[in-house]
Design goal:
6 strands; 33% helix; single chain; Pyruvate-ferredoxin Oxidoreductase, domain 3; globular
Length: 202
């Protein structure tokens, strides 16, 4: 089995870090994995995305044409990757910065007010972990516990103080994807983008 995932947003939103944590979780679970980053002209404020391929056998290529899942943190990423997503794929959309719904009827789309959820934890820069939690809830490629363990095992020492809030962001994202968490008074595209508190490399 092989699963291809794209995580995309503005530079500084933590898309690459979310992909790294996902990749570490797969490695720690004994799976084969590739992680490939891509940057726009400017790292912060430009575009940033990564592809993660997870498999239980050798991966032939890290290149992804039609991903099984996409996590999109902003509108340009939704516009780019929604048409490319595989049929019956999973599409996680940051409704805080996206002003439209998913248009495809042949994918499992979830609009999540990720920045608002992050703010309830105390820091809207945890948006990337909220989105990652929602992804692993909707796409059964790895259990949430594996992602939590990867954060615990691979978060750099200088960021250890942020571990509890990162773990809470994961759990809140998963809870929203299960329909167990409601966020009141939220509209599409309500907020401005913000940089992630998590490092872009570990």
């Amino acid at each position: 089995m092989q699963t291809e995932i794209v995580i995309a947003g503005f530079g500084g939103q933590g898309a690459l870090f979310a992909g790294q944590i996902l990749a570490f979780a797969a490695i720690d679970s004994g799976l084969d994995v590739t992680w490939m980053p891509s940057y726009g002209p400017e790292m912060r404020g430009g575009t940033a995305n990564c592809t993660v391929v997870i498999a239980d056998e050798e991966i032939g290529s890290p290149l992804v044409r039609h991903a099984k899942a996409a996590v999109v943190l902003n509108l340009p990423s939704l516009e780019k990757y929604e048409p490319l997503l595989a049929k019956d794929g999973v599409l996680i959309v940051n409704a805080s910065l996206v002003n439209r719904s998913v248009t495809r009827s042949d994918v499992d789309g979830l609009l999540i007010p990720a920045q608002e959820i992050a703010e309830t934890i105390g820091n809207r820069r945890l948006t990337n972990m909220v989105m990652l939690g929602a992804l692993v809830q909707k796409l059964p490629v790895l259990p949430l516990k594996a992602i939590e363990d990867a954060l615990n095992n691979h978060l750099p020492e200088r960021h250890r103080r942020m571990l509890p809030s990162n773990l809470e962001a994961l759990r809140q994202g998963a809870a929203y994807a299960r329909g167990e968490l409601k966020v009141e008074g939220v509209g599409l595209g309500a907020l401005e983008p913000t940089e992630t508190v998590a490092p872009t490399s570990v």
